[in-house]
Every structure is written in structure tokens, then in C-alpha cells.
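FAQ: What does a multi-protein file look like?

Like this. Sequence, then C-alpha cells, then the next protein.
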Amino acid sequence: MIQYSNERITVFQSALFQTTSTVVNLDDGIFIVDPTWLPAEISEIKGHVKSIQGNKQCYLLFTHGDFDHIIGYNAFPGAITIGSAGLLNHPNKEGTVGEIKDFDAKYYIVRDYEIEFPQLDIVVKRDGQQVAIGSTNLTFYLAPGHTADGLFTIVDSMGIWLAGDYLSDIELPYIYHSAIAYEQTLKKAEKLMSAHDIKLFIPGHGRHTVDRSEMAERIAVSLDYLERLKQAVMNGDESAIAKMESEHRFLSAFTKHCHQENVDIIRQEFAG
């Protein structure tokens, strides 16, 4: 379904994990971000792109390498691909492709394109790196923590911030890579708010917002969660750790697993 739309920007939301996919109609290209999940959902995104593309080149950005964010890679043949150096050098490409194939097999899903790990045409290696799509500049910031290969992306002229799996309104931090890096990325997000005139914030899961105070609040909530969990783990406060598990929305075996992974990583980095 379409979560947000104006004359330039369309944010699609999957039925699965409220995952977002964004299409931006630039003056000199079509910018597509993390097209996902189900075949009918990707087909809807493709149909929208076709309706606005004309003779414009498509650019396909991956905010990070989790399997749900790269699942639509080959649905856009000929697109110029963009991702981080961490994505380029992802240590488990075969495993990630295997996750997609396992998901499709489990639910009898058939796709009309081959499943592959993205090959990148444009590689982001440093904070502040810019890529020009005609007259539009994209500014990138490395965002490790959730994964090692995350990216923040700013479409400067439109004030769009594409954040990948950070600062959701429905998810607390899921730390798959590093709690230390995650906290540093949140601090970077605070500075990014000051450095750019952000008008539209789009997370990888959940709702967009145009309210800068809400953007700042999402950063504060994530920082507070990490600090409280860090203190609980370092102090061996099992009661507090268990209580924080219930703060996740949509409680399930998945959120239980993510909470335990957060605890394990914090324990390794701060208490072990």
C-alpha cells in the first residue's frame, strides 16, 4: 500500500514488518530505495516507476544488506545500484541470498526474477560523500550498528532523510552488529539534524514523519533505550533486562530473539 505520496515522492509500505520502499521522481532520474517484499508489492512499485520514468535512468539504493531490503534487486534490471562499502564487502552474501530463498520456499512464493546479492555500481566509502543524479545531490553517511553496512541518505534539495533500519516509530533498536557503533550512529543522527534541513524522515519500518520534533524524539528514545539496557546488563540486573523485553511492540518470538541478541552484544562489548 502507499503510506505517503506527493508529486515527487511515494512511500510504499509492505504488509510484512511495515517495511517501507521509497520512490523519488527526480528531475534527471528515478531514485528507488529498498523495493520489497512480496511479488505483488514489488509489482506495484514497478508499475509506479514505469508510469513516471519516461526516458529517465533508474537508480537503486540499498540502505543495508538485510535480506528483506535487497529482495527486490533484480526486479529493476538496468538500474544503477548504490550502497556502502560494507555492503560491497558483505561477509555472508550467500547466506543472505539463502534467507530469501528459504523465505520464498516456506511460503510457496514464485518471483519473475533471479535472486542475487546486489552488485554495486556506486560505492559509498565515507561520511559526507555525495552522488549527483543530474542536478540533484545525494549526501551519504555511514550508519553501522544495526548492521555493519548501513547508510543514511539525504536528498538535499527535497529535505528527505532515508534512514534504513533506524529511528522507527514501531521498533526499538535491533543490534545485529555493534551497540557501540549503534550509539555512535545515533549521535551522528543528532548532528545530521543540525546540518540538514530535513522535511521528511523515512525509516525502513514504520511511519514517515514530517515533524522535526518527532525526529528528535525518536533519536532520544533510541539513545535512552540503549543506555538503560547497557546499565542493566553491566549491573547484572536481570529483572530490568526482562522488563525491557516487554517494551518492544508486536511481542513475538522474533522480538524476544532480537532482545536477547541486544543483551548478548551489549554484554560482550561492555561487560565481558
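And here is the next protein:
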Amino acid sequence: MNPHQKELIKATIPILRASGEDLTNYFYKRMFTHHPELRNMFNMGNQANGRQKSALANAVLAYAENIDDPSVLIGVLKGIGTKHRSLNIQPDQYKIIGTQLIASIGEVVGEAATPEILDAWTVAFYQLAQIMIDIEKEMYQENSAKPGSWNGWRKFVIKKIVEESTEIKSFYLYPEDGKEITNYHPGQFISVQVYVPELELLQPRQYSLSSAFNPEYYRISVKRESGIAPNPSGYVSNALHSKSEGDHISISAPAGLFHLEKDSPNPLVLISGGVGLTPMLSMLETNLNNIQNKKTIWIHGCRNESVHAFKDQITTLKEEAKHLETFTFYDTLEDKNESQSEIIQGRVDLHKCKDSILLDQAKYYICGPEIFIKTQYETLVNLNVSQENIFYEEFGPQLINLN
């Protein structure tokens, strides 16, 4: 881009701040009208609840604000790229996005979107698209080089389903072709593709792998979400909970930047809320299997005992690994009994276990809803934990950036 075009992009920043979500809302409607086949690739739950539109608006604004040096966004772009790789996004699809986005800018902004501004945004978008294409090309190549891996979708069989709580089921997924499956880093996810009759669409969703790697199968643990029409955020989880052993689904190879450092000797603090415990369980199992006597703290919060998944497994691990310390918080606790003697009533409060978690050079991992992550992150920072040692993942489109 030339300097004049960059100045034109920066001149649109006030418009993006004021009307960014109006623009992205219009963009998605326009794109799905012209390319209805793309509805099979987008999470229509996040379309309905506005999260995808907000995430795109934030991304477009961030790009405009950093148009002089887009390289400062490389960490965020890699996060988007790893999800795109898991969804098998291809370079030619960026052309569709570009055409629809530029047209949307012209139609939403109106006369203020002069031909010169639209030309500048066209150059800007395809500059960004090329950055993303290059990032994703490298990811596809790295993925192809892994033993047992694949790009795109691969059929798996659900050979076992286990109820972990009143809301969460675990699905044990074995490759239909019986061939090798690739290893993964604890904390990573797979994309699952299922047909949703209510929408008459294929729908992808990302689910964290919830166990240490087993060369025979992948395990995901899925919470049944209650949101159905008019908000389809629960369509895929309900479709999965309706599956039976022996059913087939398509999945992509493991992906994700949120994972443990390999063989790190640092103390480990895992903090989760609700179904956010799934990647943490993979981290915990892998950590206990690979590194003996490494101080590890497990902190989990949920509404009550009935929705508390894997509680017996955590108890067993604690009995076997004396260097593992656990803290469990229930929002509500009725008639506290002997089995609940170690339960802390209320939302997760790190101040109540700060003497245990403030360990020299510890690494802190947080997973859960947006407000949960913000609360725990801010508490750790206030307790003088270095931001460089705090890692987090929000389920769904990334809406928070705490660093």
C-alpha cells in the first residue's frame, strides 16, 4: 500500500468505531445471500448471538488502526489461521470475502465511501488476505508432515459415549479407516462437522480434546447447551448428545495455539470454569504422565455437584499424585456432606487459594466464559503474577485481548 492509501484507511477508523458491527452485520447477510453454500462453513449460533459479527468488527478495526505495521497483529492472525486450517479454509474463499466486504463498505457507508477509499480498502484487504493465505499455507504444510495427520475432513466412528455429568458427555472417536491418527499438544482442539436438521445445514464446531493422547482414539467432552430457536447456539451440542455409539462424524486434525509447553519443568496452575475444564484435563493428564513430582494446582468452578464433570477422576489423580493440589468451587452448595468437605462455596476466588498458587516461575492457564477469564486474569495480575506467565482461551470467536 502507498502512504496515501494508508491515510485513507486510517481516516475510516472513526466510522469503524461507530458503525463497525452494523457493517459486519450487513456484510454477513449480503454474503450469505450471494453465497448460501458458505452457511455450511460458518457457526450459525455465533451468527445469531452476534459474537462472530463483533469479532469481525474488532478485527477490521484493529487492522485499520495498525495499517502502518500489520505485523504487530501476527499473534492474533495466527490464532485465526489455526482455526481456518481446522475448517479447511482455502485461498479462493478470500476472494469471496473480499468482494462482499468491499461491496458492503460501499453500501453501508454510502457517499462517504468514495471510489478512492474503496480502492484503498480493496488493496488493504488483499494485503491482509495474502498474509493469512501465507500463514495458513505453512500450517497446512506442517500439518501434512505429521505422522497420521490429514487436511480437510476425515470420518470417525463414535465407539463409546460416557455421561460425565448431567450436562456433559464424552465421545470416544475412532478413525473409520482404522489408520494412524496424529498426536497433539494438550490443550488443542478438533473441529467437528455434523448435519443439523433444524437448520438443514452442515455445522462445524470446535471442541477441546479432553484427555492425554491415546493412539487409538480422540476424546471430546461436550456440554449440551440449552439455547435452541431463536438462538441456535445449542444446535450442534444437542445433535451430538443425540448421537449413539456406532454413529459416524467428520472431524479435522488437531489444531490450536493454546497448549502446554512441552516438558516444561515450571509449576503448573490450571484454572477452569464450567466446561472450560476440558482442555485443562488433557493438560493435567499429560503433565502427570510426563513429568513426575512437578507441583501442579487444579482449580475448577461450576454451578453445583450435578454438573461437575470428572470429579471422581480428579480425586483419583490427587490420591495418586501427591504433588497435585486441588480446589473446587460450587456456586451453590446444599447440605454439605462428607464427600463435599473440600468444596468451597461461591464463584472461583483465587484469593482463597493464593498461598498455594503463587509459585515461583509458575505457568497459569485459564479457560472458561469471557467474564470468568477476565476475572481470573485480573486477579492474577493484581497478585503480581507476570502477564507473560498467564495463558488463556475463550471458547468461540475471540472477543477479549487482555495482554
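Q: Is there any per-entry metadata?
A: Some entries carry free-text notes. For the entry above: The longest strand covers residues 154-163.
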